[in-house]
Amino acid sequence: MRFSKREIVDVMIGAGIVPLFTHDNPDDAQQVLETAYSGGIRVFEFTNRRENSFEVFRHLLSVSRKYPDLMLGIGTIMDGATTRKFIDAGADFIISPILNLEMGGVCRDLDRLWIPGCATLTEIVTARNHGAEIIKLFPASVLGPGFVSAIMPVVPDLRLMITGGVEPTEQSLAAWFNAGAACVGMGSQLFTKEILAKKNWPLLKQKLENALTIAAQVRSK
Questions:
Q1: What is the structure's pLDDT at 33?
Q2: Rounded to whole angstroms, what are the CA distances from 15 to 12, 132, 161, 211?
Q3: CATH code of the domain in which 122 resides
Q4: From edge to edge, which strands make up the β-sheet containing 113-115?
Q5: How confident is the model at residue 56 (pLDDT cuts 50, 70, 90)?
Q6: What are the distances in angstroms from CA 221 to CA 52, 149, 182?
Q7: Is the pLDDT of residue 201 over 90?
C-alpha cells in the first residue's frame, strides 16, 4: 500500500475536488489521467462501469506508478468480492454508490479507505459507526445542499463527499461547501463528451485547474 487512509483523506479534503471518470479505451483513459495530474489532481477515481473496467484500471495503476503522489481509487463497487479484487490489484481506495457493510469489513481487514454512498441520516451514521472516514452523499442532485446543512449540526464532525449534479462553478461549489461538504466528486461536468470526442486535453487541463481554483477560492471566503 502506497498511502495511508489518513493521507488520502487529507488530500481529498485539501483539494476539495475528486474527479470521477470511466472509459473503455486504455490509451484514452491514460491520457485523461495524465492530463488530470498535470492539471493539479492528486486523487482520482476511475469508475467501474464498463465491461473491461478491471483491465483498464490495472493499466492505469501501472501508469500511476510514474507519479509517486497520485492516489488512484475505484468507484461504483457494489460488493465485498469486487472490493477485494480491486484492492488486490492495487486500488488505493474504494468508493461505492451504496452502503454495503460487507465492503466496509473487507476494507477494514485490508486497511483501505472505504467511502460508501448514503442518502439518509441513518445510513450516514451507520457508515460512520462502521469505520467510514469519508461518506459519499449520493445522489446529491436529489438531496440538495439543504440536506447537508440540516444534518451537520446533528453530526458536526461528519466528512461528506458530495457526488451527483455538482458543477465546476462558483455558485454550485459555494452552495455545497457553505452547507458543510468536505469535498465534491465530479465526472461528466469535467470530462464532457465534446472534450473526449475531440481529445482536447489542453481544454480538459484548463477545466480541472479552474475547478480547483474555484474550490479554493470558495472555501477561503
A1: 98
A2: 5, 19, 12, 10
A3: 3.20.20.70
A4: 113-115, 93-95, 71-75, 43-47, 17-21, 183-186, 160-163, 135-137, 117-118
A5: very high
A6: 43, 17, 15
A7: yes
φ and ψ of 70, to 5 deg? -90, 125
Place of cell 441513518: 122
Sequence-ordered list of residues with C-beta below 8 angstroms from that of 190, at least 6 positions apart, any chain: 19, 21, 168, 204, 207, 208, 211
The model's pTM is 0.96
Run of H or E residues at 106: helix 101-109
Bridge-based pairing of strands 113-115 and 93-95 is parallel
Residue 1 has pLDDT above 80, yes or no: no
Name the domain count of the chain.
1
Q: Which of 191, 186, 180, 135 is nearest to 164 (CA)?
A: 186
Residue type, 156: P
For 145, the domain range is 5-220
